[in-house]
Amino acid sequence: MAVEERLFSLVLALIATETGLTRDQVLSTVQGYRQRYAQDKDNSGLERQFERDKDDLRELGIPLETIDPHDNLQARYRIPKGLYDLPSDVRFSPDELMLLKLAATVWREGSLSAESRRALTKLRSLGAGASDPVLGYAPHLRAREASFEPLNRALDRREIVAFRYLKPGDAAPRRRVVAPRAVVQFDGRWHLFASDEGAGASRTFLLSRIVGPVVVLPRRTFDADDTLTARTALAELEALWQSNVAEVDVEAGSDAAVRLGKRGIAPADAVSTRVSLHFTDLNILADELAGYGPEVHVRYPESLRHAVHRRLQGVVAAHRDAESS
């Protein structure tokens, strides 16, 4: 869990309690701590993290109150709700509340986080009711792959999973055993960021290339790693997207010119328009470009040109076989 989500969970828990929570109650129940808490064992590392988080909350101006501060074990922590309420002169209009709710909805769908759903609940308490018209316009990031839900559950429960994955060019899928770290959407597709046991390193998998069911391995879990997060996954995908550039010529006025021109960099007036496109996956881009047929000519890189050519040859061969039969 990202630091900001753990702090958000802590704030929600300390606002919800009137009598305050002890340190052990926080560590054993609050999201971001409880996953690493061990009953009757050494939790010193987690305790130090809680101390740092308390300092962070105070630096953010959040009124954290300590009850019985002289007894570290029995000390109770809370955030007095009256001190954390918005100032009396701050008001949100109905339109502003709907925009806040819309932002929370997008955050919830994009981060796949139970904590962001709680944020939406908190917004409703400010007056953004379920009947607001904004619900009809709220964008949703949808997942169509069957592996999405089981991977998301395994991520929440820190379970090791196995699945069969078909890489482009392979004749058959290979079994992969991974610890899921994040499920993220980038460039219109869902990706799994995971620790791959076979590779001994982190890997990113396209959900659309997972073949068959995702299987949870019995009695196998993994520990949290603050360096392997959704933010890390998105940063790696962004770096890959920035480093991969294709140059294609598209027929002026064609469907390819309209669609690819919106995504790339192209001169406005040209008989044969050259477009520069960033991409994360060469094979996915080759599938798309081949679909435009003669409207597109790939200039660079050569590997992409060959990939598109192979797909077009396959189409020709398939039609030839169909005609001969």
UniProtKB/TrEMBL annotation:
Domain WCX: start-end pairs: 248-315
Residue ranges of domain WYL in the record: 148-211
Domain of life: Bacteria
UniProt xrefs under Pfam families: WCX, WYL
PROSITE patterns in alphabetical order: WYL
Cited InterPro entries: CBASS_pafABC_assoc_protein (IPR051534), WCX_dom (IPR057727), WYL_dom (IPR026881)
Protein name: WYL domain-containing protein
